[in-house]
User: Fold this.
Amino acid sequence: ALFLGGCALGLLVIPQSVARPATRALAGFPLLFILGGSAGIALYLLGGTVRAGLSFVLAVSAALIVLALWRGTARELWKPRELLLLAGLLLCGYLLAFFGWGETADGTVRAMSGSWGDGPLHTLVAEAFARRPGHDLSMPAFAGERLREPFGYDFVAAMLRRGGFTVGGAFTLPAAALLACLLAWVGQVARVL
Assistant:
């Protein structure tokens, strides 16, 4: 639902004259990422849970999908060339953004390849958001300290964790989608120039 919601948002808000359908659909991911993450954080700060933020984003995604189908904008993307471009860019984004994060069957988190030193800290922050009650912004690694870094990406990863994604999926899939969007728009700009 989040994938289709992002595609629907891009197709609905980016004019047809700006770019081809696959590029416009990919542009919906950062928009949904920013808007959904911001709404989730607002709900959390008001005392809600990460699951409430995820439920809200899923409801908005469903509404966007219905609106795109009702307005007929979704049909633009269902052409073989557009679907192939969309799938290819997402695959490239995934291959470039894969951090090698994962979990063993007993829940042990492992990190390798490009996740360097701050991967465990981001995982800790995301897991803290996923397990704590709302409005708790204390730093899980240092007692008595508040979060002093941008935590939006970690919060979105926590929402995906609550939705059933693994640690690797929760951190890699948004990065891959954002990178695919960047690749598509760099290509679009290069074509125009």
Summary: Helices lie at 2-13, 21-45, 50-71, 80-97, 119-131, 152-162, 167-192. The chain has a mean pLDDT of 80. The chain is about 65% helix and 0% strand.
